[in-house]
């Protein structure tokens, strides 16, 4: 067993377990407890630890990047609801009970993993500032960058702030991000979408140079079917693993 997956959503847990059976992600154990119940001594024996694991897509991204299952890494897609302008409830920021960065950061401090990757909603400057300050204060070299899913030809904008951290502090340079990120996909759109739809009149040049109107890649209506509602929730919170692979490749460049 090389990997540890922590996720509380029962539908996401079921997806992760099936992905392990199917060999899609690194083999390991799935823990459906809240991260607030996880103790450092329980996870020290694992090579990889994926927190807020969702559909297990950070492990998919790692494999796409050529990162071996037996190579140590931590990942985390910390819940964005307290900090996202798109959340259905009012943004409460650091006062929200769902602001779980302090809990994850406590485990990071106790276990001191060598390499960390993660992401957050792109409109939370305060969250990113706090994360950078915490990680740098703990001795990590850390950098963050905004990358959209449409840059790898996904049919939506999907802008997220991705970050990497390295325990030995090497490889980031003056810019706070490895030179390798220059090879990552770039946001090439000239206008943002209007209204609530991100599919209205937006065009982008993707990684392969194709320019086209963005279209829905997932049928959004659920028709009150519980299984589909759950699937949309898991998919909506997931990272694009191809973008994640670019981020992990940049981390690999840091370690050369």
Describe the structure.
- There is one protein chain.
- The chain has 256 residues and is of the alpha/beta class.
- The chain has one domain: Rossmann fold.
- 30% of the residues lie in helices and 17% in strands.
- It contains 7 helices and 9 strands; from the N terminus they run βαβαβαβαβαββββαα.
- It has helices at 10-22, 40-43, 57-65, 101-111, 125-137, 226-237, 241-254, and strands spanning 3-6, 28-31, 48-51, 73-77, 115-121, 141-147, 160-166, 203-205, 211-213.
- A 7-stranded mixed beta sheet has the order 2-1-3-4-5-7-6, sandwiched between helices. A two-stranded antiparallel sheet has the order 8-9.
- Strand 1, helix 1 (10-22) and strand 2 form a beta-alpha-beta unit.
- It is globular.
Q: What's the CATH superfamily, by name?
A: Vaccinia Virus protein VP39
CATH class reads Alpha Beta
Number of helices: 7
Low-confidence spans: 173-226
What portion of the residues fall into strands of 2 or more residues? Answer: 15-25%
Helix content: 25-40%
Give the CATH topology. Rossmann fold
**DSSP strand tally:** 9
The overall pLDDT average reads 75
Distance between the termini: 27 Å
Strand order of the biggest β-sheet: 2-1-3-4-5-7-6
**Whole-number total of structural domains:** 1
Provide the succession of SSEs.
EHEHEHEHEHEEEEHH
User: What is the makeup of the main sheet?
Assistant: 7 strands, mixed
**CATH architecture identity:** 3-Layer(aba) Sandwich
**Structural class, from helix and strand content?**
alpha/beta
Overall spatial form:
globular
Q: What Rg, in angstroms, do the CA atoms define?
A: 18 Å
